[in-house]
Structure formats: C-alpha cells, structure tokens
Design a protein that fits this description.
By secondary structure, the chain is mainly beta. The N terminus is likely disordered. The two termini are 24 Å apart. Strands 1-24-21-18-15-12-9-7-6 form a 9-stranded mixed β-sheet, covered by helices on one side. A 9-stranded parallel β-sheet has the order 2-26-23-20-17-14-11-8-3. The protein has a 6-stranded parallel β-sheet with strand order 10-13-16-19-22-25, with no helix packed on it. It has 5 helices and 26 strands. Helix content is 10%, strand content 36%. The chain folds into 2 domains: 169 residues, no CATH class; 100 residues, no CATH class. It is elongated.
Length: 304
C-alpha cells in the first residue's frame, strides 16, 4: 500500500473516530544541548563509549558545535603527545591540554586509529567528517548535538538501543546500521529529538556504504521521545518507522523551505496525542498507523 500524507487530506474516514484540529499558537524551538559547567569538568572515555572504563565519569552533554575548551585527554596523551588538525593548524595535545568536545573526539581517533576522521574548524568545533557511536556511548553521554556536515554512525548489531537521558539534536547525517542479521531493530530513546532542516536520520544505506559489513538491508527504525519529536529534514527507514512521543510529533517547516519527510519502506507508526504535519508522511509498501500511548483524543493539525 502506498500512502502519502499531503495537506487537506480528509482523515475522518480512515481514522474512524473523532479528530480535532489544533492550531498551535507557538512554534517549536529545538532544544540545543549546551555543555554544562559540571559536564566540561569530566573527560569522555578513550573510545567515546566503546570500551569499559575503571572509573565511569558522569555523562556529559556532547555538543560537537561547542567551542568551549573544558575537557582533557590525559589518559590518551600520557605516553606521548597527540597531534590533531584544528582548522588549518596542527595542534599538539599534551596532558592537561583543554579541549572542545570535538577536539577530544579527534584525539581519540588519532590515538586509537592513527587517523582523524572528524573535521574541525579553527575554534575546535566539528564542521565535517564522521564518527562512530560505540556500544557504551550512552554511559558517557547524556545529550548529543551533531552539526551540519558531520556524519554519525551507530551499529545496532554490536550495540544495544541508544538511550540518552537528554536530547538528540541532528543537523547532519545519522546512519543507523546493523552488522548482525539477528538484530533488525534500531531503537533511539531520548528526552527530545530534533532533526533540523537538511538533516538526515536513516536506516536506508547508500550504495557503497562502508560503515558496517554485511549490513541488514531492512532495518527498522524507532524513535522514542519522553517529550517531543521535531522533524524539519528527512527521517527514513529501510523497514518500519515508528515515532513515539509523550508530547507532540511535528513534521513541519516554513512554506518557503523544502517539505520535511517521514517515510518507510514498511509501516509508518506515529504514536502521539498531538500531531502536526505540513510535509510528507509516506509508506512505500505498508500502512500509516496513528495511535496514542494511552486512551485519549488525537489532535491533528495538517497545515498547508
């Protein structure tokens, strides 16, 4: 079944129960994670969360757009200095050197692989490149901000669900993959999820993608938010797509911008009592299902 949600579509016949139109009087402002004073005092583990640490630091807000230098990488630089590329300059990192979150990530990449795959601007913020979210990423990070031009990869075949106690804000590209044929679900649980204009969250892998060997080609994608889900970009799934929010799900942007998209090869399941849409919600080969977490009316605003 092919179904494309477009403005002015009459939903009364397929919902089968009362639908009320709710026009929101205020616009949603995505919550951008900020590095707190307490957070910057703690260093990320050597691998960004892919191996255990004898002493687990308090989870931090990992804002890769930040230019605040408050992290160190002493356990990576104790034996010898590490050189990272910051803008057009090579920066030598020594024990005690203060780093931005993105610089800290670059130090780990160089120390562990010999190469830096995250690209840094002159002030230490991430402006391009890529990074992986290891299996224990959630133990060390509470909130994550992915900048425009940056690619994040999470192999759910070697890691469990990605659970963040704070927010996930994506302005770049986030690829959910599974290298394990027994794992067919990629689950992301956060307080708030924001997929900004031009951003991509997907389990649909491009041809030649090298982020995971023998990747599952029909990986389901689930986003659980305690509060709200906001999409101004593209969210797509190679299998089923499920978005569940305790507050609202908003798939909307200004009329002059490209229409945001939520689509799946299989079913699209939207679970929220408040749904706002001015973009495209589509299922290629399945159904679109709308429900609530508990028995209540569903308020839908389908804007033109």
């Amino acid at each position: 079944m092919n179904f494309e949600w477009i403005p002015h579509l009459d939903f009364k016949r397929w919902l089968g129960f009362f639908i009320a139109i709710c026009i929101f009087s205020s616009t949603f402002s995505p919550v951008i994670a900020q590095v707190s004073e307490q957070a910057v005092a703690n260093s990320l583990p050597a691998d960004g969360g892919s191996s255990a640490s004898p002493t687990t630091p308090a989870p931090i807000d990992l804002d890769l757009t930040s230019t605040i230098r408050g992290l160190t990488a002493d356990h990576l630089t104790g034996a010898h200095p590490v050189d990272i590329e910051v803008g057009a300059v090579t920066r030598t990192v020594l024990p005690g050197t203060l780093l931005t979150p993105a610089e800290r990530l670059a130090v780990y990449q160089v120390a562990s692989t010999g190469q830096q795959s995250i690209l840094l601007g002159e002030f230490g913020n991430a402006v391009g490149g890529s990074f992986n979210l290891g299996p224990r990423f959630s133990q060390y990070v509470s909130s994550l901000v992915i900048p425009s031009g940056v690619t994040a990869v999470r192999d759910f075949g070697t890691a469990s669900a990605l659970n963040l106690t704070g927010n996930l804000t994506n302005a770049g590209s986030f690829f959910a993959v599974s290298s394990n044929s027994a794992v067919t679900d990629a689950v992301i649980s956060v307080a708030n999820f924001s997929n900004q204009q031009g951003a991509l969250l997907t389990s649909v892998l491009p041809i030649g993608f090298s982020g995971a060997g023998n990747a599952v080609n029909n990986l389901n994608l689930t986003i659980n938010a305690i509060n709200n889900i906001f999409n101004a970009g593209t969210i797509s799934s190679a299998g089923n797509l499920t978005a569940s929010a305790g507050g609202f799900i908003m798939n909307a942007l200004s009329p002059s911008a490209p229409a945001p998209v939520m689509q799946a090869m299989g079913d699209v399941n939207l679970i929220s009592a408040n749904l706002v849409n001015s973009g495209v919600i589509a299922s290629q080969n399945g159904n679109i299902n709308v429900a609530t977490r508990q028995l209540s009316d569903i308020w839908i605003s389908n804007l033109s």
